[in-house]
Description:
two-stranded antiparallel ribbon, globular, two-stranded antiparallel sheet
Amino acid sequence: MQEGKEYILFLKWHERHGAYWVNSLEQGKFEISGGDMEEKTMQATNEQYSELKKSVLEKYIQ
């Protein structure tokens, strides 16, 4: 994640570590301000991720 950017995170509690983790690594983190170049690259090269992000934004961003 990058400072100053806004994200939707899907977190999962990890009992053994006593902490939250981003669920499914990059598939549990979605930048919503449009400036994360790594995420843009992933959207361009990974159709499944692109469709997943589209559905997340449709559901959680009004």
